[in-house]
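Note to self: keep these together.
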Amino acid sequence: MTKLLHRILQGLDRFHAARPWDHNAHYHRWIVRQLPSSCDRALDVGSGAGELARLLAARAKAVHGIDSDPDIVARARQLAAPALPVTFAVADAPNGIPPGPYDVITCVATVHHLPFTDALTRFRGHLAPGGTLVVVGVAREATCGDHLLGLASVPLNVAMALIKNRGRRVSLPDSMTARTRPAEMTYADIVHQARQVLPGVRLRRRLFWRYTLVWRDGSGGG
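Structure:
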C-alpha cells in the first residue's frame, strides 16, 4: 500500500509539473468581488508578476504593487500596459509598505512569509476609514478537517489542471516563479490572532489549500 501511494503521488507530481495552474490566481476575481465598485487607492502586497494589481485597476484610480523580489517586480513592470494606473516597487512588508492610506489592501499567499500579527496590524494602520482588507493565505494542516479538505482538493486539482490547460502541457506561469515557503501557522492560530487584531473579521477555509480573510474598517461608516 505504501509503495502504491508513493507511485500515485509521484504520478500526480509529474502530471502537475506538466500542467501547472496558479491556485492563487484562481481567487483573484473572487477578491475583486469583495471590493467596492470604485475607489481611489489600492495596494497589493506580494504582487508578484502583477496579475491581481492589473485586475484591481478596474476598480481603483491608482494601484501600487510591492514585492521583495526584484526580478518579479521587473517582470510585473514589463507586463503592465502603459495606460493602466498601476505601479510596482521593490519593498519588504510589513515595514516597507509605502505610506497610505489605501482604500483597498490585498495580500495573496504572502502573509505566511511575514510576522502574522504585525502584518495585520500594519495593514489595518494603512487602511483608509471604511477601507477593505482581503487576504488569501496558506495554513499548515493540523486537524482532521484540514486533511479532509486537502484530500477533497486533490481530484478537483487534477480537474482544474485539465480545464485551465485544456489538457495540454504548458510552461510554468510567471506568477508561479516567485520564492515560496511552507506555512507554519495552523488555521486555528490564524483565526485566533486575526480576531484579536481585526474585530469582526470574516475567515473561511477554502479548497486548494487556501483560506480567505476579509475585513472592512468600520470607522468610515461603510
